Amino acid sequence: MLSMGVAAMLLGGCASGGGHSELPPASFVATQDRPSEEYVIGPLDQLNIFVWRNPELSSKVQVRPDGRITTPLINDMPAVGKTPAMLADDMKVALSEYIKDPIVSVIVENFSGTFSQQVRIIGATEKPASLPYRANMTVLDAMIAVGGLSQYAAGNRAKLIRFDRAKNRQVEYKLKLSTLLKKGDPSANVRLEPGDVIIIPESMF
């Protein structure tokens, strides 16, 4: 289980200063249902591998925790860190030893993502967890996935830690989780990005 010690380290890495910024309410953005070609394959992703005109070489496989996959005629090929197109190209090279001009496509069916493509929720929640990021994911989606706030959570003192590439540092934003979950205020629901960390403190007595 993720500990509050992790939260302390993350907060220590954030910029110090005055009040924390607030994010705008989430809005829906039309997107593809499946990961784009730029998606980077991660451990435990489920892959659908299709070899044209060679159904016996096509298969559905899960990326192993060690980051490799095994398919007919191909053993222990590294998959983690590659896009589906990159993996397809590597498989073409490997299969060309056995068949002429193979045509390979790789589709990510169920994805977990790499560490940088996950959203982590730690602190005073029912089930602290790392969740695979998906398009249009919001704070509400994440909180539903972890079972909501714990009994003594200080939801309106929660923080979201996000790495700002433009500033090359972590930035801290205020979240109003109690307002969102207990009052149903949609303005408190904000969009998440890959790599976000939500930290929920406990109430002080």
UniProtKB/TrEMBL annotation:
Annotated GO biological process: monoatomic ion transport
MF terms in GO: polysaccharide transmembrane transporter activity; porin activity
InterPro entries recorded: PEP-CTERM_polysacc_export, Poly_export, Poly_export_N, SLBB_dom
Record-annotated Polysaccharide export protein N-terminal domain positions: 35-108
Endoplasmic reticulum as UniProt keyword: no
Membrane topology: Multi-pass membrane protein
The organism's place on the tree of life at top rank: Bacteria
GO cellular component terms, semicolon-separated: cell outer membrane; pore complex
Principal place of residence: membrane
Keywords: Cell outer membrane, Ion transport, Lipoprotein, Membrane, Palmitate, Polysaccharide transport, Porin, Signal, Sugar transport, Transmembrane, Transmembrane beta strand, Transport
Assigned protein family: Belongs to the BexD/CtrA/VexA family.
Protein known as: Polysaccharide export protein
